[in-house]
Amino acid sequence: MALLRTLPLLILFGLSGTASATMASTFQNPDAVARSVRHFLMQQARAWPGTAQITVDPPDTSRLPSCDNPQVFLRGGQRLESRMSVGVRCLAPEPWTTFAQASVVIMGTYYVAGLPIPADATVVPGDLTPRQGDLLRLPAGTVTDPQDIVGRIAAYRIPVGRPIRARALRSPESIQRGQFVRTVAQGVGFIATGSGKALENGPPGAQIQVRTSSGRIISATVVDAHTVRVAM
Fold first, then answer.
1. How do residues 24-46 score in pLDDT, each as one tens digit?
2. Of 64, 128, 188, 231, which has the fewest CB atoms closer than 10 Å, so is most exposed?
3. Cα radius of gyration rounded to whole Å, the chain
4. Neighbour count for residue 163 (Cβ, 10 Å)
5. Which residues, listed in sequence order, are joined to residue 153 by a DSSP beta bridge?
6. Residue 67 contacts by C-beta under 8 Å, 6 or more apart in sequence?
7. Sequence-separated (6 or more) residues with CB below 8 Å from residue 191
């Protein structure tokens, strides 16, 4: 008799446990979301010259239906940061969007000025000292490839120990504001040359304003450190 009285309770608890497991399986697995986000960020980190270390906090998905194919995304213009929020969206069977918090470290080599680099000086290999660190914590625009540093001109004085930023450098073939330049205009069967004064800075390929010897202001394309091309 005792067994008969306890049997309904066992059945009830058994069904309850089965129902709970079934309900749990219908919600999105937070660890699966975290793994997808980490894989996505590792792919993004491949563009950086270093070794990535990524940790993702599993988001709360207790109210999100299980998703067949969750898609990870970054918001418009977002780049890798030391601490960032990464989006995950589901399109089917039921649409939803959530965000996971991630910590990103990219350890790599960068370069600092080993001695003061004067303005307008050409950077040589001896000017640079390599350092190791988290590339994401460097100032925006820091150049990490020495081939993009050596041979360029310092746009302003770079102090000792300062990471080399792109804006601190200019091409040796660039034109500087106030510089006198040679203008070249080419058409069918003719080439006309003249002179002028640059009103803007510009690297090769850039459009700058030039005041010609006659006082006219024209737009021209920088060819090299001394020449601009005028469109006909």
1. 458 999 999 999 999 999 999 99
2. 188
3. 31
4. 19
5. 122, 170
6. 28, 90, 92, 93, 94, 96
7. 184, 185
Tens digits of residue pLDDT in 147-188: 999 999 999 999 999 999 999 999 999 998 999 999 998 877
Provide the sign of the torsion angle of the four alpha carbons 91, 94, 98, 102, taken in this order. Answer: negative
Kindly write down the DSSP assignment for every residue of 5-37, as one continuous string: HHHHHHHHHHHHHHHHHHHHHTBPPHHHHHHHH
| pLDDT tens per residue, range 66-81 | 998 899 999 988 999 9
What tokens does 49 get? Answer: 């010259």
Q: How many other C-beta atoms are found inside a 10 Å radius of the C-beta of residue 146?
A: 16
Question: What residue type is assigned to position 81 of the chain?
Answer: E
Three-state secondary-structure class, residue 130: strand
Structure tokens at 2: 């005792």
DSSP letter (8 states) at residue 161: T
Q: Is 169 exposed, middle or buried (0-12, 13-18, 19+ CB in 10 A)?
A: buried
Q: Six-digit token pair at 107?
A: 């350890």
